[in-house]
Amino acid sequence: MSDRATDPTSERAGDEKPRLKEYEGEGITVTFEPRRCLHAAECVHGLPEVFDLSRRPWVLPDAAEPARVAEVVRRCPSGALQYHHRPEDAVAEPPDSPTTVRRNPAGQLVVRGDLVVTGAYGDRHETRAMLCGCGASGNQPYCDHSGPCAEPEDDDVPEKR
Ligand code: SF4
Ligand code: FES
């Protein structure tokens, strides 16, 4: 079940929807957009009991306190991971303020804040995104590791799950 009315990734009505995997828990539901996942770091290292690439499903939202799960999801720089609570206590992820943009050494644009990202799915309200800085991505405006930003350890990321 999802709560698109308060989900920061919700799209403009009528637009094609991105493919999301949803992992529903008692106190929090985690969604995962495989095409947006870029590196195996924050989720699996931050909360290995919840995010475990060797397990199916690889996300178990009830394996930790909902607030802790939300805190680790917010570390996901690409925005591949999002969360929402049950509709009755729905709280959208608070955006960082002020909004920040930085170009990292790999050439990606790392953006956090109160965002409207326009792409193939229309205008998406988001709080975190890694945008393509090289022009090679097939998932514009997001980076998809098609360009020189790709890293050898990409085979370990959950987008392969
Ligand atoms: S979902 Fe992907 S991009 Fe996000 S923290 Fe986990 S490995 Fe990194
Ligand atoms: S910066 Fe990663 S594909 Fe362009």
UniProtKB/TrEMBL annotation:
It comes from the Bacteria. Residues 1-22, 80-103, 138-161 are annotated as: Disordered. Residues 151-161 have a biased composition (Acidic residues). It holds the Pfam family zf-CDGSH. Keywords: 2Fe-2S, Iron, Iron-sulfur, Metal-binding. Residues 108-146 form the Iron-binding zinc finger CDGSH type domain. Residues 23-85 form the Divergent 4Fe-4S mono-cluster domain. Gene3D superfamilies: CDGSH iron-sulfur domain, mitoNEET-type (3.40.5.90). This is (4Fe-4S)-binding protein. It comes from Streptomyces tanashiensis.
